[in-house]
Amino acid sequence: MQRIRPLNNRRARRGNDTVRGALDAFRRIVQALRMDGRRAIGARLPSAQLFALQQIAEHPGVSINDLAALTFTHQSSVSVVVERLVRRRLVARITARDDRRRQSLVLRAEGRRRLKRAPVAVQEQLIAAITTLPQKDQRLLAALLATIAESLAPAAASRHPAMFFEERRSQLRQG
Question: Count of domains in the chain?
């Protein structure tokens, strides 16, 4: 993938309302995610943990792989979030009734209490907004965003991204 170079022509920058519109949309999305993260603090949970907790509450007995599908996140990223929820004693791993080799996730009492005070995660709204687009527009949006992300952080393209506002320890050390 080719690296995109910064635009140096001031006149081209000032006259491009399309670029401004795209950046404004990004800003609004990031702002909504940040605000959601602050609201999640009321439940004393990072936004990613709150989103995962809400999905587990809506789908009791869900597996890690199923939770990854529900959150549209890679299994390795969801595992990190779930491990934190388990350590905080908000979620328990239990052996699945139908397959003793599989672990299921269920809310613990403290997890239910936290959810009562928590807002609905903005990730849920973001997923709903994207899924209302026609399939071809969803594919185009995904491809365009992937191109932009690749040009901004080519080294990160080989890693699975963490859930929104839930960084892995290795990412925190690098940053």
Answer: 1
